[in-house]
Amino acid sequence: MSQGMAETGNSGGNIGPLEWFAQPSGPEGGLGLRFSCTMCGNCCSGPSGYVLVNDAECAALAKRLGISTEEFMARYTHMMELGRSLNERSGPYGLDCVFLDREKIPGKAVCGVYEDRPRQCRSWPFWPSLVRNERTWASARNTCPGIDKGTLHSVVQVRIMRDSCEI
């Protein structure tokens, strides 16, 4: 059995793993995980990274900006081995996502396309690599002040977001 997992039965009689955050001994008594964005920008900035976008996300972002999908892709994305990614730009905190706005609200980092942000951004910090176990979650907490604070996301919500991307 994997570290951080327990087995539990379900109504169908199948035995399956119960994630560490769903266990009664979990951080919220098995009810899920807490997270509220503090608008620090740490998840959108730092060393070189990637925000993968699919065709539908590019189309939605292009529409938001009032440009064609082709123009959006040419101006705001580039191809990587993993797929198409949003561009980055140098800033005082490293490389910022091209849509990160540090001027709109003084002292805060705001997503300029929040309502249409890609799935990868919507699912932060519930990525598979971060909710794998308590250690990876605690490590993410070191850079994200919103982890373990604010809104309680149910086990089901965490699973849905975790399963929506492959990071």
Explain what you see.
The chain has helices spanning about 55-65, 70-75, 120, 130, 135-140, 155-160; strands at about 5-10, 15-20, 30-35, 75-80, 85, 90, 95, 100, 110, 145-155. It is about 25% helix and about 25% strand. Mean pLDDT is about 90; it is low at about 1-15. The protein is globular and about 50 Å long. It starts with 5 loop residues before the first strand and ends in a 5-residue tail after the last helix. It has one domain (about 25-160). The strands form 5 sheets. Strands 1-2 form a two-stranded antiparallel ribbon. Strands 3-10 form a two-stranded antiparallel sheet. It has a two-stranded antiparallel sheet with strand order 4-5. It is of the alpha+beta class and about 170 residues long.
